[in-house]
Structure formats: structure tokens, C-alpha cells
Amino acid sequence: xxxxxxxxxxxxxxxxxxxxxxxxxxxxxxxxxxxxxxxxxxxxxxxxxxxxxxxxxxxxxxxxxxxxxxxxxxxxxxxxxxxxxxxxxxxxxxxxxxxxxxxxxxxxxxxxxxxxxxxxxxxxxxxxxxxxxxxxxxxxxxxxxxxxxxxxxxxxxxxxxxxxxxxxxxxxxxxxxxxxxxxxxxxxxxxxxxxxxxxxxxxxxxxxxxxxxxxxxxxxxxxxxxxxxxxxxxxxxxxxxxxxxxxxxxxxxxxxxxxxxxxxxxxxxxxxxxxxxxxxxxxxxxxxxxxxxxxxxxx
Length: 299
Fold this sequence. Notes:
- Helix content is about 50%, strand content about 15%.
- By secondary structure, it is of the alpha/beta class.
- It has one domain: TIM Barrel (Alpha-Beta Barrel).
- An 8-stranded parallel beta barrel has the order 1-2-3-4-5-6-7-8, surrounded by 4 helices.
- Helix 3 (about 60-80) links the parallel strand 2 (about 45) and strand 3 (about 85-90).
- It starts with a helix and ends with a helix.
């Protein structure tokens, strides 16, 4: 199933993002999460691809990169849910990326999410010798390969951290679409005002492909602060005060997160978003609660 067709069907599309665990126990826990989320009938799920600070990834990174590809295949085969691998330029040559795409095609994958990728920690992005500096180059390679993938790209409602302003970031986004990206998934954000301003500018720039807002249910005050520092997303003042006031109460934080994300999602969907992409952190509790509330309200 091509995701571009699913997003263009007129039916709301809810999707979930996972990451490749570091242990066998983590893999089995992930599949328990998949089982718990399966009754929600996701339009698709995606699995992230670990970055690397060097052209020769360490053994753990290499294992988890392989796991990304294996997990997407296993999810498709065992659950029947469409699963999409993230593919990144990070520490890969053009030839390596071409081989990965050939493998995905041989395994009958229909979709890829083409990203530049970022190395772990605070290391700056380094172009591998014979590799790519930007996601647009990877998208061009996907199209040159001719496998017929539905190709997704990333977008940033509050702009990419390395870009000087939103207008320039949208110019780069338009280049991705012109190169062959046929749907976009956004970085996480917590203030819908950023989304609406970004969407207006994107449409004015001629970007007409489906754009899916990405939301992360808050389950930890410290965790979400770290995540926003890494992503460049901001936390609205009112939400930040609520989180600070209940910093030591895990259940209260989860309920605050569920309430905030549910309200965000409903406003986005009522305003025409084709669906919501949930950054699950390989957990199901908050996502199940949010999606249940959305469906009671809108479906």
C-alpha cells in the first residue's frame, strides 16, 4: 500500500513511529506495543534509522540499522500493517544507500521516508565521502532507482534548527517535493499556531502534497524538555508551567500530556489535517487514550 494513496483517500490516517530497540527484550516489548495498537487500525507505522557520527558506525549502531530494516519487514508480514523504514544520508555513501533501496524493493516495501539524518549526541552532521549532504539528494536517488516507492520527507513547523528562518526552510522543502517527495511528516510541535503559520506559507510556496502533523504524547517532564532541546520545538508557557508543577508525579504528567495532545489533534483534524503521526517512543498507553478520545469526538 502506498502511503500517498492512503493519505489521499479522504479518510483520516493515524500512524505511529517506533525506534529500533537496543536489546532482544526491547524488540519483544515493541511487538507487544504493535499488538496493543493494532486494533486502532493505523494507516501505517514507521521505524527510525540510527544516525552515526562517523563513516564506520559502531557495532551497536550497525546492528540497530539492520534492525530497522528487519522490523519493518516483520511488522508487515506478522501484523499486516504497512511499515515504512526511515532511511538517512548519515554516514552512508551513495552506493550503500542504493543497496538499501534495492533491498527494500526486493522485500516488497512500498514506502520509504528519506531523511538527511543527524548523528547521536551533539556532533555536527558530517557528509560521508561519496555521500549526500541533504535529504533532497536522497529523494533524487530514490526516484532514479525507479522502484516505485511512495517517498516521504520531513518538515519543520518551527523550522529546522540549522536553517536561518522559516521562509528559507520552506524553500528547501519545496525542493524536496520537486525532487519527488509525495507526502511530508512534520517534526513534533506543541503549539498549533506554529503549524498553521507553517502550513499557510507552505501552500503559498506551491507545496501541494499531503502534510501530516507529528505529535508526541508527553509522558515525562524531563524527557520532553530534552526532546525539545534536540528538535528545536518549543513548549507553550502554560503547558510548561503545568509540567513544572507536577514534575514529580508521573501519572499527572501523562494525563497532562494526553489532554494537551488530544486537544491539539482535534483542532488540527477539524482544520483539515489528513491525519496525525504519533511519536510513540515504543509505548502505547498515551497514544491509545488520545486516539480513543479523537475517535469519540470526530468519528
